[in-house]
Amino acid sequence: MAGRGKNEGLSMGYRIAYRLRLIGLGLFGPAQLGESNDPKRRLEREREDKVAAARAARERREAEEAARRRVA
């Protein structure tokens, strides 16, 4: 099923932009920062949040579809 796995729920455009931002931060970002204000870590947390939201939306849709199938 599409949308499962490492890139779950994320569009190709978002994944490309994420990689470019990550590479840019690696090349041109600050030398060393603590975990709380590290831009690379913040980018990773944003991605984790986006994946979690996409996963929750997919599970909600699947539950609604299953409920509709039981009613019909």
From TrEMBL:
Ranges of biased composition (kind: Basic and acidic residues): 37-72
Region (Disordered) location: 29-72
Domain of life: Bacteria
Protein name according to UniProt: Uncharacterized protein
